[in-house]
Every structure is written in structure tokens, then in C-alpha cells.
């Protein structure tokens, strides 16, 4: 059932590649050299003049794309470091293969098993002007580091009056369901971090997006938590340009045009929503699918514009529904588009239980649940 | 015995003498009559002057087992019953784990499964000395801890298969074995998460004894964890609390030298974990975790120390896991020479040899036990196969104490009772 996902992903990605190219060309025209977008950017960024047209592209999967991004990041900045548990042999998901051999153990190293220590240490590195790319082995293990992220990383620039900042910090963690993960290898903690002003949360949906977004995150002058959908590490295969390129943060992308209902999602969930859209198409419902990409600060304008067009919105994510990020989107949309809405904002999310082991198929927001919700919303 | 001597001698501020880890402790510790080895029990008392250099190999306190010929009046460590019990427990652990691997590759169980092959001596050596009311807190490598504690193989296997008859009704899976009846306070997927839980459980026991005056309550808690966990903050926090409040707990470090792919020696500033005990005011002991008899000796003392109310102990067991970290781990990083060195010290073969050479039992009796265990494990698999899968309604149960917690649907009824729970066309 889910193996079909990557085929769709490839299909979708090829279709929207043209659109993306156009968009990036437009961006380049507006902004000249490509500079990462930061809210409080005072830190000098490396500017990658990105020529999307030239350069070869190879078909690779998600972990290879991330690997490439890390290679580029370490290559272009001599003060970039990658560290975490088991990164030097390549990591449990092979995202860091080859880095230690190429850049040396002084820049790519294993840390002991202490997440709080890893992130705190990363904050220190970043505060001294380095680019620290910390890996948390599973997003479920990020909670000991939660204190450091929320209390230190997010507030560093603010409370030092811009004397110090830890913008060079990027925390990467694989998140999300994987089919057999159980309680502690499948969680989606993005909502907890979205509540914290001062950090950014970015989630890619495919290899191409991942490489560009990760490079943007690393070069962004703010601390970023980058969640990688672990289900897609091997499953998602896409053409990824081999050169250095960045994708803008805080810009949502409309990956499928439609006129009846807007669907908002991120990460691995998008491919499932895609399938639901295709099925809904057969019933004559035209769905517009938006990939948020950056969760905070999120692109309200794009979503609002889309809702003004369609009048209905559905949000889907794997995390439990109560207090998930869908709630924030829903509240914001209702605030700005209340009179335009033709139906209540629908949320198709995980259930309000700890992530189950055996019951994962019932817990997850599956294609059919989304489909039912689309129909219910359209026929409201 | 040796421990009380150690604590009496322990005085970190007044030991200016250079004490390298190679020196043996004061002569008040007489070498225990560890049958079959000339090793001495080493207790670390001086936290200062650590002359240790990070060497390429872990320095084992006890040398490899040297077999002595049995004397005419055997000064045996165990009786025949005990010997057979230990043997049976270790073989059960081994056979069960091997069966797990088979079942995994056949697709009967799924998820992340971490096997305990090679470390049986630690589990058997410690847990077989416990009473039913004593608590055990484990890690994700907890199948054998559960079995040693008394959880039936059937319950463990069903839990692995995700069936209702499992010890947690299929909710937890491989990494989360709980049993109220046997006081197994869990497998924890997260490293170090169980140690504070064990500390709290130990406090309860002490409270019951001293405040509630249940004089016969001398329950001990054992916390098992690995070498990687010893770099985690929670470990140190609990060592401090346990020593401060003199809790009846034994911290057992299963040092198998590898945390997935990270070598203990390369990730720890001082790889000798047992030395961290005295820094907090409790004795730290290093023992050869591949020899169940040695582990048992150390465990006996540590547990009785805790029962007497003298406080916690940190025991580091040098052991090794024969398989990879989990069944998904290709295990390419470990040196085959290292693996074969430890495979030669297989605890089950060592115990078997000991039993036969000291004439505690015959080969036939041991073979009978092997056969019996095979049958038990096969029966467990059959039972698990035939057990029912949990009903969908179980998904929403036990999130809160009140079953109607978040499981309420818009019509006010318990959501799982709603026939439209998965909304019509949804896959069930």
C-alpha cells in the first residue's frame, strides 16, 4: 500500500519541477544573489549562486540527499561541524556516511549518549561563531534536549541583546512513523517546538526539497530544528541536482493546483494526502495541496490566498490532533478567512494516544480518513 | 565482607597515596574463594589520582577462568539445585532469543528487537537471587530480564507478537516488558530513563520499612543499563540521590563495550565505570560478566548490602553481546577477533563445564534441561501464534486513568464504541 507512495512522489516531483524552476528563476531575479531568508538576519551568510538549470541531477533517495547537503555544508564552511550519536560511521540511517573520512574526526565526531549535552554543546559552538549541525538519533529522543532548545537556543539572541546568537545551530532529527517503530521511534514532536519563538522548524517532503532546505537551514542565521521523515529515507527517490542550492525558508509551496478544497501538510504525510487528492479527483473534487515546508515561521499568505480561492481547508499531520500544529493553522485561517470559509476547518491527524505499536494503522491519518474528510468538508 | 571493608576504608579526602588502578586494594579484603579463578575482587575506593590511560582494551579484573582441579572436599560455590537452576535460566534466555531472531526473520514479530545473547550471566546471576517482591528495571534489551524474573515465556513471546495474551496485552512490544506480578518495572526504549524510576521504587521500599514500620520489607531494586547510559545525566543524578538517601538499590552496568556503533572506550573519558561509584559515596565493583558464578557472588553481597539498609552499590559487569545491537543492525563495526574472544567465554558453556567437572550433575541431566527448554520455547511460540490480536478498542484504553478520557467522541460516547470509528471506507 505504501510502497506506491514513492512512485507518486516521483511523478509529482517531476511535474512540479518545472514550476519550481520558474519560481526560483523569479526569486533570483528579485533578489539577485541567493541569500537565505532570516527574520533577524545580522549574521553573514554564504551566498550560493544557484544555477538550477545547469548541473546534472541524479536520482537519489532522501538519506543520500541529506548526505550530499552535509557534504556541501562542510565543504563550503570550514567552521562547520557535524556531531551526534553514531555519526562517524554514517549514522543509523546512513545520513552522515563519508563525512568523517572526508573532513576528519575533528569536524565529524561521535558524542556520548546525552542529548541534553549534545544540544547544549551545539549551542556553545554556535555562540562562538561556528556552524553546529547536531544530530539527534530519533526525534523521540529530543526531549532531554528540549530544555536546552527552548530555554537556551531560542532565547540566546534575545536575552543577550544581540551580542551573542546561536544561529549557526541546526538540529537534525528523523521523525515520524515508520511502520514498526512503536512508541519511541515514531513520534512527531514538531508541535512542541512550534510554540517557541526564536527557533525555526523545517520539514522537507522529498530528497530534492531536503537538500535545498537543509542547506538553507544550516546557513540561516537562526537556530533551526530540521525534522526528516524517516519513512522516506529509502522510499522517496527523486532527481536531485548535484550542485549547491538552497530553497527559501518560510515559503510554502502549492504542489498541486485545485479549486474546491485546500489541503495543508508537511513531510511524509503529503504523499498520503496526494493519493487522497487523486482519488478525490475521480469524484470530481479538485484539491489544492500545499506543502508548508517551514512550520514556524509559516507562510500564512500562501495558505490564506489558497483558502480565499477554495473556501475550504483540511490539515493533516501524524502528530496527535489535540494541540498539534494543525490547530494553529486552523485558528489562524479562521481568524483571517472566517467569512470566506464554507465549511469548518477539518483536521485529519493522529489519535490522542501515545503512538501505538500494533495499532499503528488505526492511529495514522490514512488516505481513506483524509478522503472521507475531504468529502465531508466539500459536502458540508 | 568485602564491601563493608571498602566503605570503611573509603575516605576520598584522606588518601594521598598514589593508587593506580592496577594496585589491589588493602589486604583486609581477602580474595573470595572464586572457584576456578585466581582473580581477586577489586573495589575501587580512591577517586583521585586516576593514573588510568585509555588503553585499547578493557582491563578485566578477573583473568580468564583458570580451572582448578576439584578438591576432595569441594569448596563449591553452588549446590546442585542452584547450578541446574542457573543453567536452566541461561539456556532459556539463549534459546528464547534465538527463537526471537527466527520469528523476526519470518515476519511474525516486527519493530525493533534487541537480543541478549552473550549477556545471560548478568541477568541470571543477579535476578535469580531476588524474591518476587523485589523490583527490576531494565532497558530495551529486556526479554531475558523478564524471563529471569519469572514472567512466563508464553507471555513474553505473545507480547513480542503483539497479542492480547502478552504481558502488556500487546501494547508495548519488545522494548516494554512490564509485569506487576513479578515486579518488573519495565523495559525502557530510552536509555537511562529507567534509572530514576528504579530509584523511586527503591525509595518506596525504604519508606515502607522505616516510616511505615513494615519491618520485614526489605525489597531491593535492581536497575540494569548499558555502558552508553553511563554518559547520560540521569545516571549521575540517580547515583547521587541513591547514595544520599541510602536507597536499597543496585545499579548494574552491563558493559558490553558498544553502544550501537560507538565504542565505549572512545566515548567515555574514564572507561572504568565502577570508579564512578565511590565518587558518589557507594562502592563500585567490577566483575567478569561472562562468568555467572562470579556475578552471583558479587550480586549476593550487593543485594544483601541493600537489604541490610547499607545503601546502593554500583556493579560493572564486563560482558558482550554476540549479536548486533538489534536485529536490524548488520554488526559490521566490531572486530571479529574481539567477537571470537568473547564467544570463547560463552557463559553457558563455562557453567556447563563447571557443573560437569565438579560433578554436580551429569551431561545427560543438562541435555534434558536443554530439551525441556526447547519445548518451552516452542510451546511459547505456538501459544503466541494462536493468541488473538488485540481488539481495536484497546487502542484508546489506558491513555488516562479514566477510560473516558480523550476517548470521547462528539456524541459523548466512548469513541471506540462508535461503529463509525474508522469512518466507513477506512481500512481496518
UniProtKB/TrEMBL annotation, chain A:
Record-listed E.C. numbers: 1.2.4.4
Every Transketolase-like pyrimidine-binding domain range: 60-235
Compartments it resides in: Mitochondrion matrix
Swiss-Prot/TrEMBL GO biological process terms: branched-chain amino acid catabolic process; response to nutrient
Reaction(s) this enzyme catalyzes, per UniProt: N(6)-[(R)-lipoyl]-L-lysyl-[protein] + 3-methyl-2-oxobutanoate + H(+) = N(6)-[(R)-S(8)-2-methylpropanoyldihydrolipoyl]-L-lysyl-[protein] + CO2
Signal peptide (UniProt feature, chain positions): none
Primary location class: mitochondrion
Pfam families reported for this sequence: Transket_pyr (PF02779), Transketolase_C (PF02780)
Record GO terms (molecular function): branched-chain 2-oxo acid dehydrogenase activity
Cofactor: thiamine diphosphate
Domain of life (superkingdom): Eukaryota
InterPro entries registered for this protein in UniProt: THDP-binding (IPR029061), Transketo_C/PFOR_II (IPR009014), Transketolase-like_Pyr-bd (IPR005475), Transketolase_C (IPR033248)
Enzyme class (EC, first level): oxidoreductase
Keywords: Mitochondrion, Oxidoreductase, Transit peptide
One cellular-component annotation, GO: mitochondrial matrix
Subunit structure: Heterotetramer of alpha and beta chains.
Protein name (Swiss-Prot/TrEMBL): 3-methyl-2-oxobutanoate dehydrogenase (2-methylpropanoyl-transferring)
Organism (species): Hibiscus syriacus
Automatic annotation (TrEMBL), chain B:
Keyword Plastid included in the entry's annotation: no
Keywords: Oxidoreductase, Pyruvate, Thiamine pyrophosphate
Any one Gene Ontology BP term: pyruvate decarboxylation to acetyl-CoA
Gene3D superfamilies (UniProt xref): 3.40.50.970
One MF annotation (Gene Ontology) recorded for this entry: pyruvate dehydrogenase (acetyl-transferring) activity
EC annotation from Swiss-Prot or TrEMBL: 1.2.4.1
Keyword Chaperone among UniProt keywords: no
Residue span(s) of domain Dehydrogenase E1 component: 89-390
A Pfam family annotated for this UniProt entry: E1_dh
Function: The pyruvate dehydrogenase complex catalyzes the overall conversion of pyruvate to acetyl-CoA and CO(2). It contains multiple copies of three enzymatic components: pyruvate dehydrogenase (E1), dihydrolipoamide acetyltransferase (E2) and lipoamide dehydrogenase (E3).
Quaternary structure and partners: Tetramer of 2 alpha and 2 beta subunits.
Name this protein carries in UniProt: Pyruvate dehydrogenase E1 component subunit alpha
